[in-house]
Design goal:
Layout (H helix, E strand, L loop, with lengths): L4 E4 L6 H12 L4 E5 L9 E4 L5 H10 L4 E4 L5 H6 L1 H22 L2 E3 L2 E2 L23 H20 L3 E2 L1 E3 L1 E3 L12 H12 L1 E4 L6 E6 H13 L11 E2 L3 E4 H9 L5 E4 L4 H6 L8 H7 L7 H16 L3
Parallel strand pairs: 1-2, 1-4, 2-3, 4-5, 5-7, 6-8, 8-12, 9-11, 10-14
Antiparallel strand pairs: 11-13
Bound molecules: serine.
Length: 313
């Protein structure tokens, strides 16, 4: 059977890289991208509207005979704290609707959870797959609730929904957005053209991170895995890197001149509530997860690509 794929939040940080990967793998005509706005150079099938127009979404699912959804729409941690009601409405409302469509039309679903599902009471080092989940951000609350809702739809209705807890994703195609880990992207975006960056976190703040190519690889691997292997229906820990803001600065300085000033703001509290390192052995055992990028490779790749994009020598 041909897979016909719908991607929500298609032009955000992850979608901007996932959509082309899916187009390459399944063909341009089999990938439908939806988001609030689209980049001018996008080639493919897209719809531009608010995800909360659920009747319209349902018509698109029917019209294109969708079989699989990558549901990426989400307000991140910083944006969520600025508007908790909207964060709940968007993150949980859209997930519930997608899961109901999955029940009705027998769709397979990918939905990302996050390290934001963890909190201060979670073991900080080598955080286990099954552990205490008491987040203190509304974004984290939607991630824990979403994980449980996914598991419930799988147990109760047999919906084939799969999820990973993404670490901070470091990427370069889209500018940094309203997340806590996006400082890492901003360090490149501001550092490359100006040689300076003011970091909103302390220099010793260590957070689990991952290059975007590894994040895309994880989503595709998980969705291709045989369903019998997916024994975790909440969300899988997946790990790649874990670096401090200072370690990132030092790595970037091997390529370009950079002065970073550390001026922690509200984001520090959020970062402090997340773990330092994750134990992802369950994902490695159950569906063969492995990552490819270390910090030097990630840094080199982002600088090369961003210099080209920004037309900086
Ligand atoms: N990148 C997200 C954030 O910082 C974490 O999932 O909000």
């Amino acid at each position: 059977m041909v897979e016909r794929i719908l991607v929500t939040g298609a032009f955000g940080q992850i979608g901007s890289e996932l959509v082309p990967a899916l187009q390459r793998e399944y063909g341009k005509d089999n990938v439908i991208a939806i988001d609030m706005k689209k980049p001018q150079d996008f080639e493919g099938i897209s719809y531009i509207f608010d995800i909360r127009r659920y009747d319209e979404l349902k018509e698109i699912i029917k019209k294109h005979r969708i079989t699989t959804v990558y549901h990426l729409v989400s307000l991140l941690s910083v944006a969520g704290e600025a508007n908790p009601d909207l964060c709940w409405e968007l993150n949980m409302g859209s997930l519930k609707n997608i899961l109901d469509f999955a029940r009705e039309f027998n769709l397979k679903v990918f939905w990302p959870s996050s390290i934001a599902a963890f909190g201060k009471t979670t073991p900080r080092y080598n955080t286990p797959q099954q552990t205490i989940l008491e987040p203190t951000t509304i974004y984290g609350v939607t991630k824990v609730s979403g994980e449980l809702l996914c598991q419930y739809y799988n147990l109760k209705y047999g919906v084939d929904v799969r999820s990973v807890r993404f670490p901070g994703i470091v990427s370069w195609k889209t500018p940094p957005s309203q997340g806590t880990t996006e400082y890492s992207i901003a360090m490149f975006y501001e550092g490359i053209p100006t040689g300076r960056y003011t970091c909103p976190l302390r220099e010793d703040t260590r957070i689990p991170m991952m290059y975007v190519d590894d994040a895309i690889k994880a989503a595709l691997m998980l969705m291709k895995a045989d369903s019998s292997k997916i024994r975790t229906r909440t969300s899988y820990n997946i790990a790649a890197l874990s670096f401090t803001a200072k370690e990132l600065e030092e790595e970037i300085k091997k390529h370009i001149p950079l002065v970073v000033e550390y001026r922690p703001d509200d984001r520090q509290k959020i970062a402090d509530s997340w773990p330092d390192t994750l134990d992802d052995s369950t994902a490695r055992e159950e569906w063969g997860w492995s990552h490819d990028y270390d910090l030097p490779r990630l840094t080199k790749e982002i600088i090369t690509n961003l210099k080209k994009k920004m037309k900086v020598e």
